[in-house]
Design brief:
- The protein is α/β, with parallel strands linked by helices.
- The strands form two sheets. It has an eight-stranded mixed sheet with strand order 3-2-1-4-9-6-10-5, with helices on both faces. A two-stranded antiparallel sheet has the order 7-8.
- Helix 6 crosses helix 8 and helix 8 crosses helix 10.
- The protein is 42% helix and 16% strand.
- It has one domain.
């Protein structure tokens, strides 16, 4: 089984050395290349894969975030199984990714991925649970619910048969986030075609003029919700979806994240940066 799990990064950082993990530099257009040497990967040389090669949307990275890597994989990569994770988040067989001495000791190995994909069609992160918020209300409180309203309107025109799924997802109090996934390539291609078709419609209707850098990344955030819609859709068609832990490679301030969550919920304070 040919497996390629891409790791989106925009800067030098420490990454797994296993050959199935392929670092990809996102937002690479006009920037110097990141090299394997800078990532501490000793068995490969030269520059890592860039999202501005082949058919690409690298220049949209300030708005689409890691989705410029998703697009690159869709249009340019051949493999049996493809996936995407981030320099800060990886699929793992444990709640923690590793230790100071072995930072990636629990990252999914190629053998573990192959076993998972012999039994499933798709792997996604275990769902975040918001309890007192639906996916729609959480987005509306922390960002701008208009983005999701536009996405639904676009879906009504392009994929009206999927409205029942988006309405169900909007009302859920949990969801799989981060735009991370592992999929059989034919399913990944179908997902990407559907997703970017919808986002193109959203982009035509949402004016990003005057938004801060943080606010402008709205298409990447809307896609997190849309991925849940796609997952519900394919599950209804009989596809097998497995949830796996998404573990962090950096320390996360959960107290601060919780505080921001409550401030947004009860006092209407929008998110202005990532924790």
């Amino acid at each position: 089984m040919d497996i390629k799990i891409f790791v989106a990064t925009h800067k030098p950082c420490q990454l797994p050395e296993q050959s199935c993990y392929v670092p990809i530099q996102v937002g690479a257009q006009g920037k110097d290349s990141i090299t394997y040497d800078q990532l501490g990967i000793t068995d490969r040389t030269g520059a890592i894969t860039r999202d501005d090669g082949g058919e690409n949307i690298s220049t949209k990275n300030p708005f689409y975030c890691e989705l410029t890597a998703t697009y690159y994989i869709w249009k340019n990569i051949k493999a049996d199984v493809v996936g995407l994770c981030h320099y800060r988040r990886f699929f793992a067989n444990n709640k923690t990714l590793g230790t100071d001495r072995e930072p990636f000791m629990n990252v999914l190995s190629e053998a573990e991925i192959e076993k998972l994909m012999s039994e499933a069609d798709v792997v996604i992160p275990k769902r975040n649970k918001y309890f007192i918020e639906t996916l729609y209300s959480h987005y509306a409180h922390t960002m701008d619910g208009m983005h999701l309203d536009v996405a639904r309107d676009v879906m009504a025109k392009k994929y009206p048969e999927d409205l029942k799924y988006i309405d169900a997802i909007f009302s859920r109090t949990n969801g799989s986030m981060y735009n991370m996934c592992i999929m059989k390539k034919d399913i990944f291609d179908a997902y990407s075609k559907w997703l970017f078709d919808l986002l193109e419609g959203v982009e035509e209707q949402v004016d990003v003029t005057g938004l801060s850098d943080f606010q402008a990344r709205l298409f990447g955030r809307v896609s997190e919700i849309l991925m849940n819609v796609w997952i519900l859709k394919i599950q209804s068609e009989g596809k097998v979806v497995t949830e796996v832990t998404a573990a962090y490679s950096e320390k996360i301030n959960w107290i601060k994240k919780g505080y921001w969550f409550l401030q947004a919920k009860f006092f209407g304070k929008k998110y202005t940066k990532s924790a």
